Amino acid sequence: MNRQKNTPERDSHGFPEYVPERSEILILGSFPSVKSRAEEFYYAHPRNRFWRVLSGIYGFPVPENLSQKKELLDKCGVALWDVLESCEIVGSSDLSIKNAVPVDLRALLKSHDFRLIVLNGKTAERLYLKHFGDISLPRISLPSTSPANASWSCERLIDEWKKIII
User: What's the DSSP call for residue 7?
Assistant: First the structure.
């Protein structure tokens, strides 16, 4: 297909939530990056600091492959998903998201007992409040681990994200 670089493309999430059996924390992003959609797992872009931040918070080595990422999530009791199931998006740009369709978060919350929802970045927070603002489960909004959030160093992100374990 011959597509313009800045033309929005309708895309769907393409892979399920990841919910370890003993999950207490659900971290929601906005929508997976191009790299994450290609690899069919969360935070796959090598410059996204998510895995370094999570490892830094819990004191585990930074995972190097999918198996180690899942093992880290299992040890930490952290589940991952996104607020959106599908949308029109240019590449990985949250700013370009249009015609968004949310995931079925309420169904997940009925089947799992989370103590906290963590929103990874301002777009995840905005979309969550738009589609799920009436959910009473405690939530916290934290700075994005995305490379687009370059004003936050990894060390500063770790310090801020420590709020999820308090």
Answer: S
